[in-house]
Amino acid sequence: MTNNQIMFVLFSAMIVVFSILTVTSRKILRSAVYLLFVLVSTSGLYFMLNYQFIAAVQLTLYAGGIVVLIIFSILLTSHIDHKFEPVGWKKSLFSALAALSGAIISIITILDFRFSATRQAAKEVDMKLIGKSLLSTGNDGFVLPFEVISILLIAAMVAAIVIAKKGGPIKPESQISNQQ
Amino acid sequence: MNAGIPLQYFLILATVMFFVGIYGFLTRRNLITILMSVELILNSVNINFMAFNRYLFPHKLDGMFFSLFIIAVAASEAAVAIAIIINIYRRFTTINVEDVNEMKY
Amino acid sequence: MMSFAYTVWIPLIPFLMFVLLGLWGNKLKPGLSGILGTAGLGIITILSYFAAYNYFFGMPKVEEAYKAIEAFNITWLRFSDNLHIDLGVLLDPISVMMLIVVSTVSFMVHIYSLGYMKGERGYERFFAFLSLFTFSMLGLVVATNIFQMYIFWELVGVSSYLLIGFYYTKPSAVAASKKAFIVTRFADLGFLIGILILSFNTKTFDFLTLTDPSGPAITQGSGAAFLGLSVMTWSMIFVYMGGVGKSAMFPFHIWLPDAMEGPTPVSALIHAATMVVAGVYLVARMFPIYYFAAPTALEVVAYVGGFSSLFAAVIACTQNDIKRVLAYSTMSQIGYMMLALGVSGYGGHEGLGFMASMFHLFTHAMFKALLFLAAGAIIHAAHSNFMTDMGGLRKYLPITHTTFLIACLTIAGIPPLSGFFSKDEILAAAFHHNKFLFAVEYAVAGLTAFYMFRLYFNIFWGRDTQYHHTPHEAPLTMTIPLIVLAAGSALTGLIPFNELVTTNGVPFESEIEWGVAIPSVLIGLLGIGIAWIMYRKKTNIPDRVASAFKFGYRWAFNKFYIDELYLFVTKKIIFRYIAAPVAWFDRHIVDGTMNAIATVTQTVSFRIRRFQSGQLQKYAFAFVSGAVLLVLLFIFIWN
User: What is the per-residue pLDDT across C361-392, written as a single tens digit (0 to 9) for each?
Assistant: First the structure.
């Protein structure tokens, strides 16, 4: 077994086990931590695939940003030691059935399909290339999604602030008179 | 290149993660845990894109950028979702998804 | 060729009056609506006389005949090239004659109503309806095609309904108006069937085409036979059914006595002089078809007329309500007219019956309207409808007495009044064609004289009744029409109808047949004599005669129980065994299906309401399983 294969097996095992633990754990903070592990393992997979930039972004944003956010919100909204009751068996059974059948169908489809690889040479992905693509128009340019994403981020920021403000969404009269 | 690992293994891994996330979405009662399941789903999709990019289109960057943007979207979505959850907590004092069911018959 | 286009205004002016009075009648000053209605009628009376003068004397005759003129005709509905419904004005001898009759009698009734209905609630409504009726009747008589006649036929029925039920707060009036409308409507069903069969066979509605003796409708033959009678015969019998209903012949006569619930001017106008003769007019209008293509139907016409006149005369001998006596008298006289048409031939002297029928229609309108209007004055004076409450009124009502006497003499057929001439011609026509019917009519002539003078003597002679308050003569607006109509009854006998109104428009020579005339005068005098003996002074002879014929008297007094028979058939048989099951079916099965659909929808929707539970995870579950199923279906199973 080459190193690659060992690393792959390790990472995939971690991902599968920890994701199952995330969705079945009865303590909420443990779920968050298991999620963190899943995200870190995913990042490891990206390193294996030679996409270092994305791996770094994954670690920064997901593991460092989103999981922290989730933990903060957990602290804000519930007792940390609060143990969930186990789920009713009917709900669990039907969901498992749905998920399992979906999984089986997808896996069968994947195994049946013949993927044809291309003969072209791989491109070396480095920061210079990524930066240029992000800001160029034309065939390989991604400036449009870039701009759209920036708008989305502003919108998300504004929305999050407005929704989570104390006092709820702005009521026209009372707020204005308050500020006067 | 990853010589020893066929493409299908990545895809199957991503599929498993995806459907585990779906199971969690359908089963969990706390709104935040549902959000965590959604993050699982998004991540599985990301793995899929990256695998395809590396194995089938190594001369292009489309899959990588797609994943980048998905990460950005997931982040903003998580932020807004947390804001909503906090609001719901203020209103209902519970974030049990079965108690937030006023839009019904 | 002078234009008669102005005749289109003759029906239209009353229609405008109807609209005017109907919409704004109660906003006008009281009394003004009466004046307006009467003025409108006055105008069209003048127009009718003018048109008649021009038609008969101002125009040159074509081939010695008075030609039919279509003064006005527009196509109203066009279904195909052959099938179209027109509206127009047709002038030929009988329609011009009817124009004069309708407009004159209606005018007299309008003047009379100015006095009779004064102060009544609904005064404007009355004159509006009178104008509506006049419009409908005029439209009927000038119809250019059979469908227009049917339309106005129904309109006349509606006007009659409105006017009989004029006192709508009285339950008996409401019941009577419904009865009249329903019975005539039922008869009109036959009329419509007849129209449809006829026009299907002959491919036209137009009268001129239908009644042309050398035209396609008559010469094409009588069509296939069905149950022994040809198609044309069947269609003309059905058409006659409408005439039977409208003219109150047996067996559709039951509505006419009850129609006396309406105000007396209405009885005079509609149920004596004009509407009830619509059936006679119908047969006269379609006479060529009857004679050439459906002679069996003509026999039916004659026998129905003969039987009805005898039936009505017998009943009239026993009735005590004076308006009822007059109603049965009307039925009897119309029977005369129908019989005359039934025994008539075509062309020249053969068409004596036709001419006599039209003549009798003309004179009957005059004296019957007079009788009814006078009866109105009498009822007004004595405050009762019944002969038994009256007597000795000749001292109090001189003008009414004189005019009533003239009318009674006219109807009894005493020369030189008009009734003698017209009745004599009918009897002559019957004598030459059917001796049995002649015998029947001869007997009826005697009965007519008897019951009319029974009526006369009971009202004006008899015992000297003490009245609660002295009866007084009617005001001038009510007596002038009486005088005018009396003059008409007396003098119209001198009009030479044989030169003006004949089957084919050609005048013919006719003289009084003394062989028929003298016996008819004698039997009239006999009837008057018997009535004189029984009723001139109060005696007990009537009661002895009634008890002698107890059984017959009871049957005649109760109108031969025809009403009860019809009620039995409809209520016990038709309603219970036919209408009730159909109603059950409608309510439970047809309605039930609709209700079932609604109930099922409601139940199902109630059950599946629970899908929208508001629970996020249930929605997500549906989403995921649905997606999986679709993928399964389309990717694996479909291909």
Answer: 999 999 999 999 999 988 888 888 888 888 88
Sign for the pseudo-dihedral over CA of C618, C623, C624, C628: positive
CB contact under 8 A, B5 and A115: no
**Contact between C620 and B100 using a beta-carbon 8 Å cutoff:** no
Q: Is a pLDDT exceeding 90 seen at residue C513?
A: no
Shortest distance, CA C626 to any CA of chain B (angstroms): 13
Residue of C nearest to B99 (CA): C615
In tens, the pLDDT along C43-87 reads 999 999 998 888 888 777 666 667 777 777 888 888 877 778 888
Q: Which residue of B has its CA nearest to C605?
A: B105
Same domain, residue pair A110 and A163: no
What φ, ψ does residue A21 adopt, rounded to 5°?
-65, -35
- Do the beta carbons of residue C413 and residue C420 sit within 8 Å? yes
pLDDT at A180: 44
Q: A59 and A147 share a domain?
A: yes
Of A27, A41, A73, which to mutate for an interface test with B (greatest number of B Cβ within 10 Å)? A73
C594 to chain B, closest Cα gap in Å: 26
Pair (A25, A61) in one structural domain: yes
**Chain A partners (3+ C-beta pairs within 8 A):** B, C
Indicate if A94 and A143 belong to the same structural domain: no
What's the predicted TM-score (pTM) here? Answer: 0.70
Alpha helices by DSSP H, C413-465: 418-433, 435-460
Q: Hey, are the CB atoms on A46 and B77 less than 8 Å from each other?
A: no
Tally the domains of chain A.
Answer: 2
The pLDDT tens digits of the residues spanning C143-154 come to 988 999 999 999
Q: What is the ipTM of this complex?
A: 0.91
Regarding whether A101 and A21 lie in a shared domain, the answer is no
Any chain C CB within 8 A of the CB of B59?
Answer: no
Range of the domain at A13: 3-85+126-168
Substitution target from C628, C630, C633, C634 for chain A, most A beta carbons within 10 A: C628
The string of DSSP letters for B51-94 reads: HHHHHH-TT--HHHHHHHHHHHHHHHHHHHHHHHHHHHHHHHS-
* Sign of the CA dihedral with B16 first, then B17, B18, and B20 last: positive
Distance CA C181, CA C262 (A): 13
